[in-house]
Description:
Blueprint: H1 8-12, H2 16-23, H3 44-47, E1 57-63, H4 68-72, H5 101-105, E2 114-115, H6 130-137, H7 145-149, E3 163-164, H8 171-179, E4 181-183, E5 186-187, H9 194-202, E6 209-210, E7 218-219, E8 222-223, E9 228-229, E10 246-249, H10 254-260, E11 265-269, E12 276-278, E13 281-283, E14 287-289, E15 295-297, E16 335-337, H11 338-346, E17 353-357, H12 371-386, E18 394-400, E19 452-455, E20 463-465, E21 469-470, H13 471-481
Parallel strand pairs: 1-17, 1-18, 2-3, 4-20, 5-21, 9-10, 11-16, 11-17
Antiparallel strand pairs: 4-19, 6-10, 7-8, 12-13, 14-15, 18-19
Helix pairs in contact: 2-12, 9-13
Amino acid sequence: MATGTTTGSARVRRSLAALVVAAAAALASPAVAHPAAGRAGPSRSDLATGTRTPIKHLVVIFQENVSFDHYFATYPKAANPPGEPRFVASPSTPPVNGLTRGLVTDNPNAVAPFRLDRSQAFLCTNEHAYRLQQEAMHGGLMDRFVEALGPTTAGCDPGQVMGYFDGNTVTALWNYAQRFSLGDNFFANTIGPSTPGVINLVSGQTHGATPAERVDEIAEGTLIGDPDPRYDDCSLAPGDEGSGGVARLSGTNVGDLLSAHGLTWGWFQGGFRPTARVGGKVVCGAAHQNIHGDTIPDYIPHHEPFQYYAATANPHHLPPSSTAMIGRTDRANHQYGLRDFWRAARHGRLPAVSFLKAPHYQDGHDGKSDPLDEQVFLVHTINALQSLDAWKSMAIVIAYDDPGGFYDHVFPPITNQSNDPRYDALLGPGLCGRPSPHAYLDRCGHGLRLPLLVISPFVRPDSVDHKLLEQASILRFIEDNWRLGRIGDQSFDATADSLSSMFDFAGRPHEKPLFLDPRTGEKVRGR
């Protein structure tokens, strides 16, 4: 079992400082003591910053490779077999657009959807490239997932793409949905793997990538694959999981907008802190063992979006010059390890906008992570965040970069079209609709549905939001809440709706936290 899986009932009964210690278990070395955090509130500078809503602190936890149906297909009904954590929904829980009996018994795919037991949490890595996902969707027939996206590694079952978990495995996420707000109509902005998803989160614009055409990475100047970031010493390291090359991006991202307005912000990623320096470059050597017994590197360069932009990169992974400078512009340039996030929280300096990326074994990525390791990270983190005074003005967003090849039954609205003969295939060879003459190609989308949860005192408890939202909706909320303006240059922020529909700012805030057990995902008694 991965490190850091101590039961939540013991941890949550400890002091608030110990909660933050537990949350920081995602750091590279389990032998390193993590900074404790007391009930620290927002810094004075952030309190002085006007926002359009009561949200003064936004924390975005961005996870990996999960479709909506893969985690919420049968929500709120769980099988509840003996010996597994139980989930029994409130009678008033609204339904979601999940798998109906007809889609289970008469599914057009080669394998019918099936429940994955908690004992089957670890799965192989699926295929999920830009063109292959289009082929799986097959013009809206949604019938070629097994053939197009099933894992190709020897010994792996291609039919696993049709599997789904329920509230006996992703128990914490289902409990968060019960207490807070779940979106069941949230889509990837474009079809594709991890890097396009994370770039859409921070800029809504995957065009502007160089060097020019790289097979399966860059097409027509658009990022479609997983090249490593150009401005990162740890790119192309031995055992790297990127697609083989490096790329950089021009244009503006949300970090540029936040810095221009004097706001604190940061990207905090597991394993970002270097473990060594070799030949003038740092080494990101931190690793953990997942529940399958594999040793997995904590830091994945192509999951770090700001390292693709010269203006927001920290190529040598330099630490912040002081605790007071976390979230501000110094040598770290807003790019940090997770320990720095908790250090800032302990000292009452939680940034206005924080992006958290789990170490790879806890990010949910098939073949590397799993729902149980992921749950440990999510619960430790959210337990600790709810223990801060800043919780009273906070929103936590849990979202995902791409569907990871897993089945989702909803054909997404294709609002951005492309006709690249090499890489588009949604409606036939070379076809994803008819783009306008000046549109950037290879941004076919929306991609498939992804899970979305908003955890905040300012949401309607046990609510399901059906509004069409997308990855750039998170970007749009940040822009609107802090009055930042727009990215421009055909960024999807211009057309995305904000996350505001998931909040209830007119009602009375519900500040009571929900403390869960990180091992089981169940509620901690007495809290």
